[in-house]
Design brief:
mainly alpha
Length: 173
């Protein structure tokens, strides 16, 4: 039941990223910067840290593929990027004592890996013509702040859900 709640939460976040959040997008109000919500990726990174890296990979593949199919012309970019980020961050989390601060740093590191991977890949195959300086100042830094604030807002409820999921998995085994 809790896994269904996690999947449903990720799906609702996916819908919010693509629909509701677009109403508040700065480009709608002629502002220079872009806010890219990666709410699903943030929660998937938390899944990789608090459940297991493999669960992070599974959710990363599923929701990354969904993102690729709906929002991009290139299938596999986000599927691979979110899954690999969740895997790396999941294993890095085993090195640290997890609290809200280390989780924030690790999530922002995972977000950074994902954003730079997508930017570099899209630049390499000429899908984007955004300069690196524009990417950093107009897209990456505002999005890093947005996703960091989101992580701080959802950290405790998501952590509690993931700990309950982990405990129920232990009891089943």
């Amino acid at each position: 039941m809790k896994q269904l709640l996690l999947s449903g939460t990720l799906f609702v976040l996916f819908l919010i990223e693509g629909t509701v959040f677009q109403v508040f997008a700065p480009e709608q109000y002629d502002l220079e910067f872009q806010l890219i919500p990666r709410f699903v990726a943030v929660v998937v990174l938390l899944v990789g840290m608090y459940l297991s890296p493999m669960f992070g990979v599974i959710f990363g593949v599923i929701f990354g593929l969904l993102h690729d199919l709906i929002y991009t012309d290139l299938v596999g970019v986000y599927m691979f990027g979110i899954a690999v980020s969740a895997y790396i961050i999941g294993y890095l989390a085993k090195v640290f004592q997890l609290n809200w601060f280390t989780s924030l740093v690790l999530v922002l590191l995972g977000f950074t890996m994902l954003e730079f991977y997508v930017y570099e890949l899209f630049s390499l195959i000429n899908i984007t013509n955004l300069s690196f300086n524009s990417f950093i100042h107009d897209r990456y830094l505002p999005s890093l702040i947005l996703n960091g604030i989101f992580m701080l807002i959802v950290y405790f409820p998501v952590k509690r859900l993931l700990e309950e999921l982990s405990e129920s998995r232990r009891q089943e085994n």
